[in-house]
Structures are given as structure tokens and as C-alpha cells.
Design goal:
By secondary structure, the protein is an alpha/beta fold. 27% of the residues lie in helices and 29% in strands. α6 links the parallel β14 and β15.
């Protein structure tokens, strides 16, 4: 049996991992006993030779992602236990057998003790997305675990990691079915039907994390003219129309996404829906539009994925929301979001505050939104709360 690779931390650099934070940064490492390759399982020790955790090694600023704070003798068993615990959590909150929902996140990375692994459930088909080479090496075990845990409900497994993993030992990561899907690509969310494109769509195919926020929007849409910016496949648009909106405009730069948005609206509302789509960059649309709206949704892609571009991102949120405040009617509602992990809730709120001041509008916060319970945040890893949202009433 090969000797385990040991990572020794510098004095004082072990406090976060003692508090069960799952990341070990490269700057915290004093010494490495052995020669780990990308994805190898390693053990982490304090400078006093105390065991702290076991996880996967990576050549980057986050050098180790912890999968267990106890010694790991069988990595397959540890991964299966963590997936099983994640599924149990979804059972407890009523999502695995919900009468109106058959789409949910099954594993949410650090929030479920598996840093670097996303698993989304789409009406029997599971889509996996690996951000960790170490977990990707265990892909066969992950599929076997899904078969055991989900059972007969599992109709297919699709791996979508080509954009999240640069490669494994020089090989190219290809997307594809690990278990051929026998199910269709339609899911139900609170009675609404959505067509999911997990093969070519963004993320794993659908923004599951906005489910509860879409539902809330539906209750506030009656009689309003609605603008859905960065509308993707029309999730918010469907809820707005179902909620009685008098007209909905959906804007996205992707013609494929807009095509799916139209299909989803027709599927749920019919061909006579008061719905108009625009294949256009949002900045260009906002600059040129002369229309005013009663309800505006802005759910942009991450403006900042790294700390060094945070200032530019905050300026981007300010510019976007300033223009939104300029075209919202008095008594209008704004749903505005940030999904950037490095943008704190406080910084996002300050950017929106600055936008409101620039536009000279009186604004009240009605709701402060986040991700739903199937996207749990480990209390030891607050960075996992990536989705921030504000619902605003604008006089």
C-alpha cells in the first residue's frame, strides 16, 4: 500500500481548518512529505503533527479541498456517505417526492461536504459537474453511488465538466452520458413545465437556485409590464405571465436561450401569450429602449469570479441598476441579483444603494433573497452563499 502524502501547515495557519473550513490555501503550507499530483488524496497535519483532515490536492491557490475531517481509509466509501447524506437532506426538506417539483440540486459542493462536485436532478436524469480533479477521478464511484442512493428513479447520468476541468493528466475532458438517459428533458417546478438543455445550456441546464425567487415574483406580477433581463430560458418570464403580467419582455444575448424561452412560454401559457423576446446585449438594450416597466428582473452572470476584479464588478452592478431605476415606473418593483461569490451581500447592497442615489429614486427594500435550501451553505464555509438578491419598491 502506497504511503499517504502528508501536508504540513505553518504555525498559526491551522485555525480555519480546525473550524472545519474545507479549503487549505497554498500559502499556509510549510512542507509536503511526498510528491502529490493533481487530484491525489492527501492528509493535512498541523505543525505539531496533529491530523486535521483529508482531501484532494490541486496545483492552485486552493491547494487542498477537504472531504473529511477524519482519516479516510476508503475514499469511495467516504464519497458515497457524503452523497447519501446530501440526498437525505433533500428528503427531509421534501424535495425528493414533491408533488409539484421534480428538479433540484442533489449535491452542492462545499455545502454538502464534497468541494468541487455539483449534482443536479432533472426528473430522473442526473447531471454531474466536477470542479475537482480528485473527485473526477472517482467518477465511476459517484455513478455507482447514485444508482444505489436514487434507485429506480434514476434514468440517466450526464457528465458536464468540460468547461470546469481543464484536463486530467493531459487528457481532454469530454461531456457525455455515463448512464444513458431514458427520460425526457421536461421538468416540473411549482406546476410550470420547463424544457431543459443540459447538453448545451448554461451551467447544468437550468438555474435551479432561483426556484423560490421565481415563485415569489409570480405573486407580484399581476397587471404589471415586466422586463426580464439576462432572461436565459425564460424562467422568470413564465412565472410572471402565470402570475397575471399584462406583458413580458425577455432579453438575452443568446439566440439559443431565447429560442428556449419562447418554447417554455408557449408550453405553459400558449401561443397567444403577451411575450416578446430580444436577442440583444443587455447593456445595448437598456441604452436604446424608450419603454418603461412596472417590474424589472436583472439576474446577470457573475460579474466577478476573482477578488482582483471586484471593484470593476461593483461598478458594473451600479451602472446596470442605475439604468434600471431610470426606466422603472413609479410604484415599480425591481428584482436584482448577484451570483458572484466574491461579492459580499454588503458590497452588493452598497452598489445598488449608489445606483438608486444616482438615479434620484426613493427605494425601499422589500425582501433580501438568497439561494434555496437544496443549495445549502456550510456554516463553516460562508463563501458558499453566492446568490444575493434584493426586491425593491421604487417610488
Amino acid at each position: 500500500m502506497a504511503e499517504k502524502i502528508r501536508i504540513i501547515l505553518k504555525s498559526g495557519k491551522d485555525q480555519s481548518i480546525r473550524r472545519f473550513h474545507p479549503w487549505v490555501f497554498s500559502g499556509a503550507i510549510k512542507k509536503i512529505h511526498g510528491f502529490p499530483s493533481e487530484g491525489d488524496l492527501v492528509e493535512v497535519y498541523s505543525n505539531k503533527d496533529e491530523f486535521l483532515g483529508a482531501g484532494h490536492y490541486a496545483n492552485g491557490s486552493i491547494a487542498v479541498r477537504i472531504i473529511s475531517f477524519k482519516p479516510v481509509d476508503n475514499v469511495h466509501k467516504t464519497i458515497q456517505q457524503n452523497i447519501s447524506a446530501a440526498y437525505k437532506c433533500r428528503e427531509e426538506i421534501g424535495l425528493t417526492d414533491h408533488p409539484e417539483i421534480n428538479v433540484f440540486r442533489m449535491v452542492n459542493g462545499e455545502g454538502d461536504g464534497l468541494p468541487g462536485l455539483i449534482i443536479d436532478y432533472y426528473n430522473g436524469t442526473v447531471v454531474t459537474q466536477f470542479h475537482s480533479t480528485g473527485l473526477f477521478r472517482e467518477i465511476d464511484g459517484v455513478v455507482e453511488s447514485l444508482k444505489n442512493i436514487v434507485g429506480k428513479k434514476l434514468t440517466g447520468v450526464y457528465n458536464k465538466s468540460s468547461s470546469t476541468l481543464t484536463g486530467l493528466e493531459g487528457t481532454r475532458i469530454l461531456d457525455g452520458y455515463l448512464l444513458e438517459s431514458a427520460g425526457d428533458k421536461e421538468v416540473i417546478e411549482y406546476g410550470n413545465t420547463f424544457i431543459i438543455d443540459w447538453e448545451d445550456g448554461q451551467k447544468t441546464g437550468f438555474y435551479i437556485d432561483q426556484r423560490e425567487n421565481r415563485k415569489l415574483l409570480g405573486t407580484m406580477s399581476a397587471g404589471r409590464s415586466v422586463l426580464n433581463l439576462f432572461g436565459y430560458t425564460g424562467g422568470f418570464s413564465v412565472y410572471a405571465l402565470r402570475g397575471g403580467a399584462k406583458v413580458v419582455h425577455t432579453v438575452d444575448s443568446s439566440s439559443r436561450a431565447i429560442e428556449h424561452a419562447n418554447q417554455n412560454v408557449q408550453k405553459n401559457i400558449g401561443h397567444n401569450a403577451e411575450h416578446k423576446t430580444f436577442v440583444e446585449d443587455v447593456s445595448s438594450f437598456l441604452q436604446n429602449t424608450t419603454d418603461k416597466y412596472d417590474l424589472i428582473i436583472a439576474d446577470p452572470p457573475a460579474f466577478a469570479k476573482h477578488q482582483h476584479v471586484l471593484a470593476n464588478a461593483l461598478q458594473g452592478y451600479k451602472r446596470l441598476n442605475t439604468r434600471i431605476f431610470e426606466i422603472i415606473n413609479p410604484g415599480g418593483i425591481v428584482y436584482t441579483f448577484s451570483c458572484s461569490q466574491v461579492v459580499s451581500r454588503e458590497n452588493f447592497r452598497k452598489s445598488v444603494f449608489a445606483a438608486a442615489a444616482n438615479a434620484g429614486r426613493k427605494v425601499r427594500i422589500l425582501y433580501q433573497l438568497s439561494q434555496p435550501p437544496d443549495h445549502p451553505v456550510s456554516i463553516y464555509h460562508p463563501e458558499g452563499e453566492y446568490l444575493k438578491g434584493l426586491v425593491l419598491y421604487v417610488e
